């Protein structure tokens, strides 16, 4: 976008183009709007098509508030593009046309150097076109960053503790931090959460999930969360996943040395007080089998849903319907232990699911 577009946008709509440092904000202007603003400035065009432009904000999630995810363009061609239905969201508010209340503004004289104006009016489709630099406003004062703004910047950049403290010290050296902003804040940023986590043996677990949710600013509704238990080769972890993936995942259990076993699953569920919340549980078939007390290994009845016989190979591609399991009784049909959870609380996740603890926690 050229300086002429910036000036024309500010004069016509009464606001400046901002958030150009954010990835979710548009960084390009279509040629139709750029030419329209240029013609309006030089008086060859009376008005634009709308009085209030499209307003972009940071989307909350990709499920209910993402303009691009909610716009269905499957099967759309150049002839049918007029049939696209664009959503009107909080993160992308549609433009408003002119009316009696929203009158057409009058252009003011734009003061640019001759070289800058000539450079800005070049065709942007030209391969040799390079956008000119923005004119500097010498009267603009630097923005002083407070603690909450610094915390948001560190979160957006996904910085570690050392990197966050280094960034804060550099900004403080340049006199860009408020007097009450603490650079050492990031050394103990986990202190409010760590008091709700304990260690038992090699297992680190959350002893008060409701309090952790409250610190994160989330109202805990157990019906809206799913407990996912996964175990790679040398570790065991438990993570709460939000229904619809609207909120971020919350790790509540992790161990480097514990392996998948019925005893370890029993210990984990008791420590995180699963009986108090009764979340739905998702995991791979091995984890589900251990939670329901199924015998591990290559067994005769390895399915917890039906009595599929792994030994009856002559019937595998012939019999379509197998008897359902109505109950899981220890000592019968490959059930070795008592079930730890209600089978109705079990959910089968997608095969492509891959979970990992966030590095910042």
From TrEMBL:
<protein>
    <submittedName>
        <fullName>Uncharacterized protein</fullName>
    </submittedName>
</protein>
């Amino acid at each position: 976008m050229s300086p002429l577009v910036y000036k024309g946008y500010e004069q016509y709509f009464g606001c400046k183009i901002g958030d150009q440092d954010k990835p979710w904000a548009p960084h390009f202007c279509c040629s139709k709007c750029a030419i329209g603003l240029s013609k309006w400035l030089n008086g060859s065009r009376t008005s634009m098509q709308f009085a209030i432009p499209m307003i972009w904000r940071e989307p909350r999630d990709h499920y209910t508030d993402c303009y691009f995810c909610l716009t269905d363009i499957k099967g759309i061609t150049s002839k049918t593009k007029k049939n696209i239905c664009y959503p009107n969201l909080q993160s992308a508010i549609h433009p408003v046309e002119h009316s009696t209340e929203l009158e057409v503004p009058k252009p003011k004289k734009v003061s640019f150097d001759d070289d800058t104006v000539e450079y800005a009016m070049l065709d942007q489709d030209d391969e040799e076109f390079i956008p000119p630099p923005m004119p500097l406003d010498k009267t603009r004062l630097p923005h002083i960053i407070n603690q909450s703004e610094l915390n948001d910047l560190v979160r957006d950049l996904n910085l570690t503790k050392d990197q966050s403290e280094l960034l804060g010290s550099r900004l403080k050296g340049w006199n860009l931090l408020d007097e009450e902003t603490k650079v050492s804040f990031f050394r103990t940023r986990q202190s409010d959460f760590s008091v709700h986590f304990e260690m038992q043996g090699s297992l680190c677990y959350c002893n008060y999930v409701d309090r952790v949710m409250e610190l994160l600013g989330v109202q805990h509704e157990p019906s809206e969360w799913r407990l996912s238990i996964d175990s790679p080769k040398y570790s065991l972890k438990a993570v709460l996943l939000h229904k619809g993936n609207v909120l971020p995942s919350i790790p509540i259990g992790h161990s480097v040395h514990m392996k998948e076993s019925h005893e370890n699953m029993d210990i984990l569920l008791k420590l995180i007080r699963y009986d108090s919340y009764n979340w739905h549980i998702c995991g791979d078939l091995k984890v589900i089998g251990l939670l329901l007390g199924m015998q591990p290994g290559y067994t005769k009845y390895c399915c917890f849903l039906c009595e599929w016989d792994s030994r009856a190979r002559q019937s595998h591609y012939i019999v379509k319907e197998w008897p359902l399991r109505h109950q899981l009784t220890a000592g019968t049909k490959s059930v070795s232990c008592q079930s730890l959870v209600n089978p109705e609380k079990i959910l089968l996740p997608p095969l492509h699911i891959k979970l990992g603890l966030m590095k910042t926690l």
